[in-house]
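Memo to structure team: turn this sequence into structure tokens by end of day. - J.P.
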Amino acid sequence: MTRNMHTKLRRFWLSEDGALMIVPFALWLPLFIGIVVSGIELGAITLRHTVLERALDQTVRDIRLGTGTNYDHASIKASICEKADILPGCEDNLRLEMVKLNIRNWHEPPAAVDCVDHSETVAPVLTFEYGRDNELMYLRACYKYRPFSPASGLGSSLRTDSEGYSALISTSAFVQEPS
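Reply from structure team:
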């Protein structure tokens, strides 16, 4: 029986059937692997962004409803991170910016997004204004993450900082309800 298997393996090894398929396989394989890796990266980005959007919307809904809780920067950030539990390192990689907007004297919110810079040791809160009754507030959350495959496919085309982090940005607006 061992001799029979040895003969079949030797015949398979020496066979030249299918040799013509090796060249197209070798040429197309990297393309297919790149497509698969890009699909995984896109799925991870979509999942992270969807979770961040939902957590931000749920937190802003709680603020709008005025449940009696006094919200500050730390509590809003903690609420978003609690609702977005699949985002790794949320407390360290999430940056919030809240700006008061005047609907009667309209100015666009600042275009530059303030995100966590991992090369700094301390990232202070730069812009976080608390609103008064009936004021329009613009809340922007920026979450930094490391791409799944930074060197190939979609991951190589993402804009990253010096530490290799890419940013996801979600925004929401709400009106401070009167107490």
